[in-house]
Amino acid sequence: MAAEKMSLSKAINASLRTALETDPKVLIMGEDVGKLGGVFRVTDGLQKDFGEDRVIDTPLAESGIVGTAIGLALRGYRPVVEIQFDGFVFPAYDQIVTQLAKMHARSLGKVKLPVVVRIPYGGGIGAVEHHSESPEALFAHVAGLKVVSPANASDAYWMLQQAIDSDDPVIYFEPKRRYHDKSEVDTAAIPGPLHAARVVRPGADLTLAAYGPMVKVALDAAAAAAEEGKSIEVLDLRSMSPIDFDSIQRSVERTGRLVVVHEAPVFLGTGSEIAARVTERCFYHLQAPVLRVGGFHSPYPPSRLEDEYLPGLDRVLDAVDRALAY
Predict the structure, then answer these.
(1) b or e along 12-25 (b: 16 or more beta carbons within 10 Å of the residue's beta carbon)?
(2) SS3 sequence of the chain
(3) Which segments constitute the Transketolase-like pyrimidine-binding domain (predicted)?
(4) Is pLDDT above 60 for 1?
(5) pLDDT surpasses 60 at 249
(6) How many whole angstroms separate alpha carbon 189 and alpha carbon 198?
(7) Structure confidence at residue 157 as a pLDDT band (50, 70, 90)
(8) Mutual orientation of helices 270-281 and 245-255 as an angle, nearest 10°?
(9) N or C: which end of the chain has fewer CB within 10 A?
(10) What is the maximal distance between C-alpha atoms in the chain?
(11) Residue 236 and residue 197 in contact, taking contact as beta carbons nearer than 8 Å
(12) How confident is the model at residue 128 (pLDDT cuts 50, 70, 90)?
């Protein structure tokens, strides 16, 4: 099949459809995922084509949704759970952290829980409270969970396929404000490793590392900096646990500088671990401190203020200029 241009949300839908067609043990569960097709219409048409036994509308009970998925996984199924919005995941946090993440180690490797938890996350859509969070660091901190986030439609398709195929639980963060962004998807391609970072724009003066919704901002920043003669390398991290530190190290050894960008608060965010690890591994290559750009250490603001809260082009370029000034 030739590559097809599709939106990120359509790519997720296509990936779920492929998984349902390929493996009868794959199930989709979540609030309004069936008849409605999800609040973002990401699961549109799947219940109609595969039935209510495989695309299951659940009660509004996130803990029960994840707990049921754990039980199904113990019986040999591969549940794909949708949490309707990022801020709704916390009632299920106990199930995810104390059960889903621990069972493999608790059973000395005898029990596997192939559960995917899909979470639309991040801001930029003008939503109300609890609908624009970026809690990825909370899950990346938990041993036993894989945590990933695609930045484009091709990765959205293939990373979800790989997450469903994984025998370990995967938290799959979907950048909701990128749902309508389109790119080429080759459903016959051979994907790279799930947790490998990828250079999406080569450069020589500085590495700009991002994931999920911030990759587009990083690319825009690199294009703007190029107009001033600055060569910025953009690295799409793709995975927050595990983090591909080898790829980051190779890039920083080439450029000598690193700026990490994410929507989540800078304080104790994913960028903190990356900055610490890069300082340890690349100390003699660094020509400037590792800088971080992200949200503020405050509750996510009302939608009228979210443009001030979210890291945009100006804040990223300011960090680039500060790093290059050393």
Answers:
(1) bbbbbebbbeeeee
(2) CCCEEEEHHHHHHHHHHHHHHHCCCEEEEECCCCCCCCCCCCCCCHHHHHCCCCEEECCCCHHHHHHHHHHHHHCCCEEEEECCCHHHCHHHHHHHHHHHCCHHHHCCCCCCCCCEEEEEECCCCCCCCCCCCCCHHHHHCCCCCEEECCCCHHHHHHHHHHHHHCCCCEEEEEEHHHCCCEEEECCCCCCCCCCCCEEEECCCCEEEEECCCHHHHHHHHHHHHHCCCCCEEEEECCEEECCCHHHHHHHHHHHCCEEEEEEEECCCCHHHHHHHHHHHHCCCCCCCCCEEEEECCCCCCCHHHHHHHCCCHHHHHHHHHHHHCC
(3) 6-181
(4) no
(5) yes
(6) 16
(7) very high
(8) 60
(9) N
(10) 60
(11) yes
(12) very high
Paired strand residues for 147: 171, 241
pLDDT digits (tens, 9 = 90+) for 191-221: 999 999 999 999 999 999 999 999 999 999 9
Structure tokens at 56: 């299951």
Which residue do the tokens 């029990």 mark?
Answer: 111
Reference 69, options 149, 170, 142, 175; nearest CA is 170
Which residue carries 């043990």 as its tokens?
Answer: 25
Token digits for 219? 């690319």
How far apart CA 132 and CA 202 sit, in angstroms, is 31
CB atoms within 10 A of CB 75: 7
Amino acid at 226: A
Catalytic status, residue 297: no
Q: Can you give the pLDDT at residue 3?
A: 86
What residues have CB less than 8 Å from 236, skipping those under 6 apart? 151, 155, 197, 198, 199, 200, 210, 211, 215
Are the C-beta atoms of 121 and 173 separated by less than 8 Å? yes
Q: Is the pLDDT of residue 223 over 70?
A: yes
The length of the chain in residues reads 326
